[in-house]
Records
---
Amino acid sequence: MDNQQPNQQPPYQIQPPQEPYQPYYQPNYAQGQRPPKPDNYLVWAILTTLFCCLPLGIISIVYAAKVDSQYNAGDYAGAQDSSNKAKTLAIWAAISVVITIILAAFLGILGNVLDSI
């Protein structure tokens, strides 16, 4: 008779990964040393929301609000990325209002010229 118990399972075997994989590591900063906090551009985001382009300004505020929390959590790359996105969106909001003003002035002048004919 076998000495094997009826519900006994074979031992588990750990298989190595098939492809070489590299784990993700945060940069190792010395104790008490942190990179400088990136600017969150929150003031620019609020101003462009109020005076320029509402949709781009709101998205810029969202990214600007993420910067501090990501930095405090130790996600320095994420904080820098959010800062860059907030800045870019604020710039595009300001550019869009300039383009709108130029287009409105051009259409106003064109309307006056066509009306006088």
---
Amino acid sequence: MTIRQLWTIGWILFLLQAPLGVWAEVVEVDSDFDGQPDQWHEVDEEGNLVQIEYDTNGDGKLDQVDIYENTKKPVLAKLDRNFDGVLDQFQFYSKDGTLERIEKDTQFTGQLNRREYFGPGQKLTRIETDENQDGTMDVFQFMDENEKLTRAEYDTNFDAQIDRWEYFGEEERLTMVAFDSNGDGKQDQWQYFKNNTILEKVEFDTNFDGEPDRWQYYDPKGNLTRVELDRNHDGVLDLVKRK
């Protein structure tokens, strides 16, 4: 069945279900002048553009739909990026045409597994991904005004709770990683890095009161050189081991 036939059937069904008095017009456009229509513009009874459907690669299948809400620019664009007949990317815009969010099926499995959020200047501010394809986002990345990564949060055991945090400095270099080892939603281990990969120090909150009470220090080769302990958790060091 051709795209034109599919469109005709859909249009007939729309007319049968539409309330009395509702009228719209569909305009076919051959944008590349090859003798085959590749755009279908739907206009309501007041002349407002409702949506545009596209066959961008000329394979006879719709692969993009732009939705309008009495606006000059689309508020939603739906795309089939791999031309398999299934929409796999959805782009959301404000009424002035500013990009706000993109949702994607990056694996082309029918499951949306990535969201991208945009702020002022349409700059990327946050990325969310569903790593295990269970429908729940479990990795969250945050960017600064220059779209540089500043923080990443992970749900590593897929229980819908963050248990790992990564922090980044200049040039997106890793500076610290924090963990929630007991599943209470609070950080209780902190690893500090130099030059992105060199571990310098690890702090532990062994009694889970929110304060570190064990410190481990490392040399540039990764060897443990010193351990400090606050054994009675009063905020004062009471044992130091050196190697």
